[in-house]
Design brief:
heterotrimer; A: 288 residues; mainly alpha; MetI-like fold; globular; C: 272 residues; 14 helices
Chain lengths: 288, 424, 272
């Protein structure tokens, strides 16, 4: 009986999960072995042909590299800022509710909306960044989004701004679950603030850090909304990311087979992350 | 006898019915400029119905150009009615590859109808013609023009009524127009040409001015690596890198208008579609001119055409032809141009009293028309999305100094050849 | 949130505040640009005149009421379906020792990693086969069976003491009755937390709705805003800012009013 009930309860969700996650994932793999069909040229089996094309596609390697730098640039920074924020708003900061709100607000705003505001920040000459630069440092105007050396960094700054408050929440929760006696004991011993953080808080936050790290890494493959407004991946793909490239290939080049091939790569990357995640979680269990 | 009469009557009725039956024409159209244009289109449809009883027109607004294409194709696939549509002029090859459209020549059979096919500006027909047949009838079309700030010209000691006529002059004037503050930081640039959004479109103008189109009419060959084309990109690059009259790197399409109206650049190249917006927000007198020449003048066209779908009955095709003809009469073309800011698609439209009067009040509006004799088709090929992006990337790579114009364009040409080989 | 921790040193307080101002500045700018005439969009003068004209224009430029309606319908529909589906599935995983449970659970968790965004290409095909392209149902469907929700509710249900269930059974409750009378009421905080997270996620979601919709009748706010504010169309900053503020206002106001609940929800949901 329990088998029947168990499966009955599960069925509605299972149908949707299989229909929109497992089946499409498998179909993606399948489609990546065929060419894109049109009315004039029907689709045919090409084996690993699409993967060979992928290996030869400089844009693919570029967006993959961009994705790597994007992850490397956003994750540690936003996590550090998040930890700092959490420690600050956990302290008796004056008007800390207001600060907490300020930090968290970007999380509830749609990326697509705020990207428009950031576009204004980065616009040369009339943009806020250039105005401030000119007023404070008399610096010449810089073409922030038009320069391949700065464009990726500019998108990273925006993403850090968007994500840090979200990660802060997890650190805050962890900090609040730490026993207050620890800090009192440390104060009795005359430990410095930095020493206490380094030797007590930081190690105790380690499980949270791992958790946030994995989430942030997965996110770094999913966050592409800003590209639609800020740069469209340009100049010359300097700010493009894997998922955005998939979107372009599928919906602007209409090459669904190649888009599927790219998606397979993305799925493999995510699967790799999953393995790491499981191992981390296991270690976490032992640690406890 | 009575039976015979009845039979005869029935026969007569049956014969008469097809002629009186309602023919329905459903068409999808995009809107890419501001304003309550759906009302204008609906108004046209109602007026046409009044003059042509027995034909019903259902215009369906379908968003921007991409949406309209997707929506029309989806409707056709799902078996929903759609007889004609206004779609992006450069969707031609995609629509041919999908095998959903037929040429207008198939339905335009009388001498008068054949003449109608030739009534438009030739520049506007280029994007709609494939293998000698007309697939796209121009409807909402635009082009690139040069805007200049007359106050800035005065300040720099230039004639405020005279725009640069050629490349050398533009670079020289731009140099004079650059304004720096005490510390040497640029306060105002000489000229800006946008290089995000539609870099290929802007570059087509440069290439055309230097004597070349970027693709063949069959849409299966590109001409990215011709020495003159490379020289055109070099000129664009040099405006920023050597002459220092334009910021280095890419210039954002979307914020450029703001930079112009804020006086941060003395000249800009932009679509005619921005005319009204500039008119409304510029606090200084400004002029609109044809783009400067190198070997010749030149600009690509852009915008939407009427296409006729394959899955249509002869009666529907006839009604569709009547409707599109009606939509493109000189009077309607003039009216539509005034309502939208698009160019009127045929010369006679500019002879109508209405448009003559409008042009007299707002002379900037006819610059685009005058430029038509130098205009060329917008970049469109088979695999158009990819082939276009190759060029976009090459342009941006050159403008940002990642690669030389020659390297970038040659690489793009090689890749385009690979993509287009199956279509030759 | 208890008043734990000690007072931060002055330097850190200053840094914390500087960061807070920085973090709020894009929003502050949006308010500046939205409430001032276009001429002041890029110029900051204390006594610049105020105006509501940008809002009026934004309102006429894009069919905001329709986008609002679409978003509200979308968010409500997704949440309702999620609550039902995840409750049932979470209950199954928490309390029924059925054959293949662990494998099934593993397969559910796959979705935590492969979010529907990743599968836009294939899901678009599925939707067109189902005839659901350009429908609100089509936007919502891939998100309805949420692995995250199932996981969260399973964890919560597992903490419910068995004795409560047994007592309800003795009183003659069916197994669905037990779920409704015992488990659901006890999981109320989890539902609230999950609901807030889900609503704010889907209010802000963009990529999949962009792909699957192509008319005003189905487009949610984010997509409407992207098209309306697309740099190509060359709309003014003031109008874009006004549109942005209108689009985020409901969520922002809700957030400001229920800040504490919001943050606690995100916390709870995140900790698992």
């Amino acid at each position: 009986m329990k088998h029947v009930y168990g499966w009955l309860l599960l069925t509605p969700a299972a149908i949707l999960l299989v229909g929109f996650t497992h089946y499409p994932a498998a179909a993606t793999l399948f489609d990546s072995l065929f060419s894109t069909g049109t009315v004039v040229r029907p689709s045919r089996f090409v084996g690993i042909g699409n993967y060979a094309a992928l290996a030869d596609d400089p844009i693919f390697w570029q967006v993959l590299g961009n994705n790597f730098w994007f992850a490397l640039g956003t994750i540690p920074t936003s996590m550090t800022i998040a930890m700092l924020m959490a420690i600050w708003v956990n302290d008796r900061l004056p008007a800390r509710a207001l600060a907490r709100m300020a930090y968290f607000t970007p999380t509830v705003l749609p990326m697509i909306a705020v990207a428009n505001l950031w576009l204004f920040f980065y616009t040369p000459q009339i943009g806020l960044l250039d105005q401030i630069n000119a007023a404070l440092f008399n610096a010449p105007s810089h073409n922030w989004l038009g320069d391949p050396r700065t464009v990726l960094a500019c998108t990273m700054v925006m993403v850090i701004w968007k994500e840090a408050g979200f990660f802060m929440i997890f650190y805050l929760a962890a900090l609040q679950s730490l026993p207050p006696e620890l800090e009192e004991a440390a104060r009795m011993d005359g430990a410095s603030r930095w020493y206490f953080f380094r030797r007590v808080t930081f190690p105790l936050l380690m499980p949270t850090t791992l958790f946030v790290l994995v989430n942030a890494t997965i996110n770094s493959f999913k966050l592409v909304d800003h590209l639609f407004i800020l740069t469209k991946g340009g100049p010359d793909n300097a700010s493009s990311l894997l998922l955005y490239y998939i979107y372009q290939v599928a919906f602007s080049f209409f090459d669904t087979a190649y888009a599927s091939t790219l998606t397979v790569v993305l799925l493999l990357l995510l699967a790799g992350l999953a393995l790491v995640q499981f191992q981390l979680i296991e270690r976490r269990v032992h640690y406890r | 006898m009575r039976t015979l009469l009845a039979l005869l009557l029935t026969g007569l009725l049956a014969a008469a019915t097809p002629a009186r039956a309602q023919t329905e024409i459903t068409f999808y159209y995009p809107i890419a400029v501001g304003g309550p244009l759906t009302k204008v289109i609906d108004g046209y449809a109602r007026a046409f119905e009044k003059e042509h009883p027995g034909v019903k027109i259902n215009p369906i607004y379908a968003g921007n150009y991409d949406d309209a294409r997707i929506r029309a194709l989806a409707a056709l696939k799902a078996g929903q009615p759609a007889q004609i549509s206004v779609l992006y002029s450069i969707d031609l090859y995609e629509l041919i590859e999908q095998d959903v459209i037929v040429p207008w020549d198939d339905v335009a059979t009388t001498a008068e109808e054949k003449a109608w096919l030739k009534a438009f500006y030739p520049a506007l027909m280029m994007n709609g013609t494939y293998k000698g047949k007309v697939y796209g009838i121009p409807f909402q079309r635009s082009t690139i023009v040069l805007y200049w700030n007359k106050d800035a010209f005065k300040e720099a000691g230039l004639d405020p009524e005279k725009a640069p006529a050629d490349w050398t002059e533009m670079a020289q004037m731009a140099t004079k127009l650059v304004k720096k503050d005490a510390r040497g930081n640029v306060e105002r640039w000489g000229v800006m040409v946008p290089s995000t959004g539609y870099p290929y479109w802007m570059f087509q103008a440069f290439a055309r001015q230097n004597g070349h189109d970027l693709m063949n009419p069959e849409g299966n060959r590109t001409n990215y690596a011709h020495p003159d084309v490379i020289a055109a990109l070099q000129y664009w690059r040099d405006l920023g890198a050597k002459d220092r009259v334009m910021p280095e790197g890419t210039v954002e399409w979307g914020t450029l208008r703001q930079q112009f109206t804020e006086g941060k650049t003395a000249m800009m190249w932009h679509t005619t579609g921005n005319l009204t917006a500039v008119k409304n927000s510029a606090k200084f007198p400004f002029g609109v001119a044809m783009l400067p020449a190198s070997k010749q003048r030149g600009s690509p066209t852009g915008g939407g055409n009427f296409y006729l779908f394959k899955k249509t009955t002869p009666a529907e095709r006839k009604a569709a032809l009547d409707f599109v003809k009606w939509m493109t009469t000189p009077e309607r073309a003039a009216d539509w141009s005034i309502a939208t800011g698009y160019v009127a698609v045929r010369p006679e439209a500019y002879e109508t009293p209405k448009l003559k009067q409008y042009a007299a009040d707002f002379p900037q509006a006819v610059v685009a028309r005058d430029q038509f004799k130098f205009a060329t088709a917008e970049l469109a090929t088979f695999q158009t999305g990819r082939v276009r992006k190759l060029l976009d990337d090459a342009i941006q790579a050159a403008l940002t100094g990642q690669r030389t114009p020659a390297e970038a364009l040659k690489a793009a040409q090689t890749e385009a050849d690979r993509l287009l080989k199956p279509y030759r | 949130m208890t008043a734990a921790g000690r007072r931060a040193p002055l330097l850190e307080t200053a840094a914390a505040w500087l960061l807070a101002v920085l973090w709020l500045s894009p929003l502050l700018y949006a308010f500046w640009a939205a409430f001032h005439p276009v001429a002041y969009a890029t110029r900051f003068e204390l006594f610049a005149p105020l105006t509501l004209e940008n809002f009026a224009r934004a309102w006429t430029y894009a069919p905001f009421p329709r986008h609002f309606l679409n978003t509200v319908m979308l968010v409500t529909m997704i949440l309702a379906a999620q609550l039902v589906l995840c409750t049932l599935a979470g209950y199954a995983f928490a309390r029924f020792d059925f054959a293949g449970r662990d494998v099934a659970f593993g397969l559910v968790l796959v979705q935590l990693l492969i979010m529907p965004e990743v599968l836009i290409v294939e899901n678009y095909r599925i939707m067109s086969r189902l005839g659901l392209v350009d429908t609100i149902l089509g936007i919502g469907l891939p998100y309805m069976a949420s692995a995250f929700g199932i996981f969260l509710l399973r964890q919560t249900f597992k903490t419910v003491p068995r004795e409560l269930e047994d007592a309800a059974r003795v009183e003659g409750c069916s197994f669905l009755g037990v779920l409704w009378r015992v488990y659901v009421p006890l999981a109320r905080p989890t539902y609230l937390a999950y609901g807030l997270v889900s609503v704010s996620y889907h209010w802000n979601n963009f990529l999949w709705p962009l792909v699957i919709t192509n008319t005003v009748e189905t487009r949610p706010l984010t997509v409407g805003l992207a098209i309306f504010g697309a740099p190509e169309s060359g709309v003014d900053w003031g109008v874009i800012s006004a549109g942005t503020i209108m689009a985020v206002a409901p969520l922002l106001v809700a957030f400001l009013l229920f800040q504490r609940q919001f943050m606690q929800s995100f916390m709870q949901a995140g900790i698992k």
